[in-house]
Design goal:
The protein has 138 residues and is an all-alpha fold. The chain has 2 domains: 2-81, DNA polymerase, domain 1; 97-137, no CATH class. Helices cover 58% and strands 0% of the residues. The chain contains 6 helices and no strands. Helix 4 runs antiparallel to helix 5 (109-121).
Length: 138
């Protein structure tokens, strides 16, 4: 369900940018301009959008155009000629086993459980507070 919400958000952003244009009026250069325009914009977390996020938006657009080409609604997909942004969203670092043990030893039981779950599942930093909230409410 979360992915459907994300796709709807992507579609809304694309509609804001390209909604007044007919499909055959959209050119690859317009999409590249959109990419560059989106980079400095601020996400709901208060940080600039990452290239990977913008690439996800354009993947939605590319898929929409691919379906339109298949259904012969449009003749071409302008996204095919657009290069993806480099999205090196690598982790800064991962705790070693010793660092994890030390951290858990210095935490109260409830947060220690959340940190353990986050470590072993590869949870993102922003997801841990959601888990903590759900645990407290159950």
């Amino acid at each position: 369900m979360k992915s459907i919400c994300k796709i709807k958000q992507h579609c809304q952003k694309l509609k804001e940018e390209f909604g007044d244009l007919k499909a055959n009026e959209i050119k690859p250069s317009m999409i590249e301009t959109y990419q560059q325009k989106r980079l400095p914009t601020i996400s709901c977390r208060g940080t600039p959008f990452k290239p990977a996020s913008i690439n996800r938006e354009l993947e939605v657009m590319k898929r929409i155009f691919s379906l339109a080409v298949r259904e012969e609604t449009v003749d071409r997909n302008p996204c095919w000629k657009v290069t993806r942004l480099s999205d090196k969203n690598a982790r800064d670092r991962v705790l070693s086993g010793e660092e994890l043990k030390s951290l858990i030893a210095n935490l109260p039981p409830h947060p220690a459980d959340i940190v353990t779950a986050a470590y072993y599942t590869g949870m993102r930093a922003g997801e841990a507070p959601i888990i903590a909230q759900n645990v407290r409410n159950s």
